[in-house]
Structures are given as structure tokens and as C-alpha cells.
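Protocol step 4 of 6: structure prediction from sequence.
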Amino acid sequence: MPEGGSTVGQLSADGRWRWDGTSWQPATPATVTRPDPGWLKVELRTAATWLTLASALVVGLVADQWLRVGAFGLAAFLTVAITALSLMFAGRLMTLESRVLAAGAVLFGAWLMVRASPWLLWPDMAMSFALLGLAASLSVRGSLMDMGIAELLARSVHGVVHGAAGAVFVFKPLGRVRLRLGVLAPLARGLLIAAPIALLVAGLLAAADPVFASFFNLNFDFGQLVTDVLFVAIGSLVAGGLLRLAAAEPLTRVDGPIWRLGSTEGLVVLSVLDAIFAAFAVAQAMAATGAAGNTLRAAGVTYADYARSGFFQLLWVAGITAVVLILFSRITGLTERTTKRAFQVLAQIAIGLTLLIVFVAFRRLSLYEEAYGFTMLRLYSHIFAVWIAIVFILLAAEAAGVFPRRRWFVGATSISAMALLLALNLANPEAIVVNLNIDHARFTHKMDPQYLAELSSDATPTLLANRSLVDQSIRSEITGVACAGPHTYSASLAAFNWSDAAAAEARREGC
């Protein structure tokens, strides 16, 4: 009912309502409060205990030994192993999968004191800490085999948020005893007052008596102390972040964004990819049958050079295609059965043609190695080609509707990467490169000893054991390269590395 005397636009006495001529309306537009995403919440399900604080400090002390020696070895392995144990007991991992992931971190951490090749050590370290992070994130709920890409990203952000607050979390127990320490305040004030007086008196007495002065000649390295405190802090903060993540409220299922690309746009993208890959397949057929000979001669490229080139670019194409297919399969809206079926067909065609590209890259790289020998980069390119082919096969199975009720692709891809890295550690890729180059030298009578000198201790025993298989001149060069390192192994316990010790033993016996 209209109110007499009220004019249009007039505010009420409390300023919250405005008269529009017929009724009172809110003075400001209503705001819609949207809840924060679940993975952004920082609530904890359990509080830190004294065991939490002690575990973080122990990890920090062991990490100090690792960082002080500046090398991968026993201390590096112990850092990973004690961090995993801290998660299991202080972090209270509840699910079997989280414990298996923590045990997997210890498995890959063990290779940090067994292998010496940077081609293995850095992936091993990254895998160890990735598994520790996954174990902490999945401590109560969730599974790697039911985790979509959106949930993986959400858990990564969730982990970073909790990791940044790890220091506040692990030192919480100290706050609970702050009041109990109030009785020590007078003692602390007395020490502060006495300190300058004591320094003055001690200084005068030291100047008067050299024997008394000798009591203060301490061999104290302040720089090393600061470095150790920094290293302990780094290790403790990393452990504290993982422990806080394990104590956080578990994430629920995280789905991708509601927004979707139109089905037409997604189909166009896949059609263009298929057309380009089909043209590439035609080019390969022409080259194989000799129909492209004039084109190659006009470009000044021999067929041998053509067959041994372009493999890195082809692998890049395969990797980019995998990203495109994964992305568009998630963001394309396929509400109709016909468009969904068309998308699946185009995706399977793209996967099949990309596997052809991977095969061509693999073959070209093999021809290049037959001509010029093997390196770690070329070996790892072969390995990447095999792994990306496995990823495409998994992607094809997902696109075909295998296990449609579960989001298994990310988990299956992760497991394939773990299995591949574990196989590489067992096989010793530097030893493989040495064996392949020795086999190559037996037929070509050529080898690049300078490259072999760049390899780590992983290659030394194999070099010395197989040098007799090549010509005398090459054998002498191998001996010079392999015997250039130390013949005794005297590293500290923290820096102990099995491969370095084995290389020194091989030199002592074979040089």
C-alpha cells in the first residue's frame, strides 16, 4: 500500500530501502554469495601434535645433510624415506592407496643413492616428491584411478595452499605451552640484563689474562651455521607442508568447468587435424615408393638425409596432438548422439594417424643412430616415442568408452610413467648407450670418446668391461676416458652413492 508523503527514490530511515512509487525496494542490488570451491578450503581434520613437529624437524636435519654435501646419495634417500614415514605415522595416512603411494616414493628415492646419471636422478627425485604429494592429498579419500584432469589441477592448487602454511601448522604445539612458559619470563629478562655486563667484564679479564682469553677461542663457523639453519628450515617446511596437506579436510570429487565449446567447433578442429595428418601419410607413401624423388632433388636433399631428419619435430607434433585431443575431449559439448559418435570417429582417426607419425619418428631416429651413433638424448627420444604411443592407446580406449563410469585416464597414464621410470632405473640407460655405441663401432670402426667422457659413473663399468670388443685405437681412447676418474672412493656417508663406488672399483681393477 502506498505510503503518504513518500517520494520516488526516497530512502528509508535505516538507509536499506528505497521507495519506487508503489513499494519499498532494496537500496542496493542483492548480492549472490557463491561458495568457494572445495579445493580452496583450508580447514583441517586433525591438529598438529608433538610428533608432527618432531617429524618435520627430523626431516629438516636429514635434508641438511643432503643439501650440505650437494650430491645425490644416502642422505637424499633417507630424506625421502623419513618424509614418507612421517606421512604414514604423523600424517596418519588412512587409505591403502595413500600408503602404497608413500611406499612408491621410497622406492624411487632409493635410486637416488644407486644411480649417478642426471638423466635418472632428477626424474627420480621429481617422481618421489610427486608421489609424496599424492599420498598426502589422498590420505583420507580419493583415488588416482578415478581422478580427472580438473581434479588433478584442483589437488595441485590445494596442495600448494596447504604447503605454504606448513610452518604455521607444525609449530602449533609450541603455542599450546606458551602460557606455561610464563614463569620463565623473569629469568629471560635477567639474562638480557646480565648479558652486556658479562660481555664487558669478560672482555676486560680476557685482555688482562691470556689463559682466561683462551677459553673464548672457539672454532666457530658462523657462515656454516647460517647455511645449516637455512637447509634445516627448507627440509622442515617441505615436510610441514606435506603433513598439513595430509591433515586437511579431504577433497570431494572435482568436475571440470560447466562451460563447453560447441560441438561444431570441436569437430572442425579434429577434422583439420585429420586432414593434415592424412596429407602427411600421403607424403610418406610417396617417399617410400620413390614418387617424391623430384621434390627431394629440387630441395637439395638426398633420400638418406630425408630419412634421417625431422624426428624431433615429429615427436613434438605427437606431444602437441595428445594435449589437443585430451583438452578438446573434455571441453567440447557433445549432447547429441550423432555429434558424439562423429567426435569419437574423428578422434580415433587422429590417434591412428598420430601413431603413424610416432612410428615414422622412431624409424627416422633409428636410421640416424645407425649412421652417427647413440646419445642419451636420442635414446630418451626413442623412449618418449614408445611412451607417447602408450598414451595414445590409452586415449583411444577412453574415447571408445572403456570403463565410462570412471575417470581412469590420468591414473593409467601416471602408472605407465612410473613403470617406465622404474624400468629405466633397472636397465641403466647409460650402460645401454655404451653397449649400443660399442656394437656400432664394431661395424663402423668409429666412436666418439669425448661424448662417452660426459657420461656419469653409471657408464664406467660397462665401458671398461666391453672395450675389448672394439679396435685397438678405439680401445685406447675408451681406456683413457674411463680411467680418468678416481680409483678410490672416499665420499662421506651422507654422499655415498653405489654407482660412484662401483665406478671407482672398476677403475681400480681395470685401469
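Step 5 (inspection) to follow. The chain has 22 helices and two strands.
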